[in-house]
Amino acid sequence: MLAMNYRGPFRVRAEQKPEPEILHPEDAIVRVLRSCICGSDLHLYHGLVPDTRVGSTFGHEFIGIVETVGSGVQKLKTGDKVLVPFNIACGKCAFCKQELFGNCHESNPEATAVGGIYGYSHTAGGFDGGQAEYVRVPYADVGPVVIPEDMHPDDAVLLTDVVPTGYQAAEMGGIKKGDTVVVFGAGPVGIMAAKCAWLFGAGRVIIIDHLEYRLDFARNYAQCEAYNFRSMEDPVLFLKKTTDWFGADVCIDAVGGDAAGNAMQTITGRKMMLQAGSATALHWAINSVKKGGIVSIVGVYGPTDNLIPIGNVVNKGITIRANQASVKRLLPRLIEHIRSGYIDPKAIISHRIPLEEVADAYHMFSAKLDNCIKPILIPPSARQ
Amino acid sequence: MDLEKKFAHIKGWGVDADPENEPTYPIKKYTGDDHQRTNWERPPQQPVTVEILHSNERPGVSAVFGTSCPPEGLSGNIRRYAFKHSESSYGHWLPLLLADRVNVVEGIIDDLKKGHVPNIFAEKGWKAAWKYNRAGLIKKIALTALATTAVVMLYKSARSKSR
Ligand SMILES: [Zn+2]
Ligand SMILES: [Zn+2]
Question: Which superkingdom is the protein from (chain B) (predicted)?
Answer without folding.
Answer: Bacteria
